[in-house]
Each structure stands twice: as structure tokens, then as C-alpha cells.
Design brief:
This protein is mainly alpha-helical and 100 residues long. The chain has two helices and no strands. The protein has two domains: 39 residues; 56 residues. 2% of the residues are buried. Keywords: Coiled coil, Membrane, Transmembrane, Transmembrane helix.
Length: 100
């Protein structure tokens, strides 16, 4: 069950990372267009507005990725603790009932 959750988290993180790459590419493309002197004032304003919107999406995706990574590390720590507890219980069992 835990493995399925971790797998889904990884898929979501990969999706967000891809979205970030696409958004960064879009920002670069818009900035290149804005450097062109052949734009009309209207087109320049549209591109600047689009750039602000894309940057906002980029900030949101970065925050989401940060939160997903935090959740992923929490899940890993829980799994590691569970494994440690299992080994501890098993070791205690062997000490009490086993022939070591």
C-alpha cells in the first residue's frame, strides 16, 4: 500500500517537473520575443502580461514540487522507521526465543 503511494508521488513529481521545464521554456521564448524591437506596443503589452501569468504558474509549480518533495521525504522516513522497528522486534524475538 505504501509502495503505491510512493509510486504515485513520484509520478506527480515527474509531472510537475515536466510542467516546470515547459514553463521555463515558455518564459525564455517570451523573453526572446520581447527583446525584438519589431513589436507593436499592443503586442508587447500582451507578451508582458503573458510573461507575468507564466511566471505565476512557474512559482505555483515550484511551490507544489517543494511540497511534494517534503511529503516524499516524510514518507521515506516513516518507511525507514517501520523497517527499523521490524528489525528491532525480530532481533528481540531472536534474543528471547532463538538460539543465537
Amino acid at each position: 500500500m505504501e509502495n503505491i503511494s510512493l509510486d504515485m508521488d513520484m509520478q506527480i513529481m515527474e509531472h510537475v517537473e515536466e510542467s516546470l521545464k515547459d514553463t521555463l521554456y515558455r518564459v525564455e521564448a517570451i523573453e526572446r520575443k520581447l527583446k525584438t524591437k519589431l513589436l507593436t506596443t499592443e503586442n508587447r503589452e500582451k507578451l508582458e502580461n503573458e510573461l507575468e501569468e507564466v511566471k505565476e504558474v512557474l512559482r505555483r509549480n515550484e511551490k507544489e514540487l517543494q511540497n511534494l518533495r517534503k511529503e516524499n521525504s516524510k514518507s521515506f522516513m516513516i518507511a525507514a522507521c517501520l523497517i527499523f522497528v521490524c528489525f528491532l522486534i525480530y532481533g528481540t524475538y531472536l534474543l528471547i526465543f532463538g538460539n543465537i
